[in-house]
């Protein structure tokens, strides 16, 4: 084999390898692949914390009419949600807790704290909190026990937590957490995304979550908010431009083969 033939064969191998990588990349960019589910690590999740109190009308409204959406639209997959049911309560000199909206609020704050304690996974305790807050929103807070039956939950761990003093200890922990906030909370609901309070923009929390998310692929719930999203992919060529470039490369390779 002469030098020209060797050079030609090496070029052919290089072109075939390049074409193989192009085909592989094109398959990765295919619609079926891009629409598949993705896994988000705990480090990539956006931390969302809601500081609230049970009988606060604005808090109930936020939970019932806004917060639930992250479960409905799948955004919960990139969110580490924490609920803190204490709000503007105060601790008296004798250690008792005095709540802004009266004794019933202290009861329900503690009940919700106990539900979080009894069912640590947010997917388990949020339905109960939502149910209680929906009753609160409707002025039916005294019927909170019906949420156990409505959701098919065993009331024992929550009731025991409330009666044996565990709930009170949990509320004291929540008190320490909200007291330590920097900047301090000014009102409730107080919504914090990755350590930053949203102040009066809290109802737009989904936009802030999407903006804070640094994962390589934005969830569908963020697609309509793409102008707010900052991800490591921002500086990468768009799919349409990339496909155009791939087409040009393929054409160039084919032309080089024809001229051999």
From TrEMBL:
It comes from the Eukaryota. GO terms for cellular component: extracellular region. This is Gamma-interferon-inducible lysosomal thiol reductase. Pfam families: GILT (PF03227). It is found in: Secreted. Coiled coil: none annotated. GO terms for molecular function: oxidoreductase activity, acting on a sulfur group of donors, disulfide as acceptor. The lineage of its organism: Eukaryota, Viridiplantae, Streptophyta, Embryophyta, Tracheophyta. Keywords: Glycoprotein, Secreted, Signal. Belongs to the GILT family. Residues 1-34 form the signal peptide.
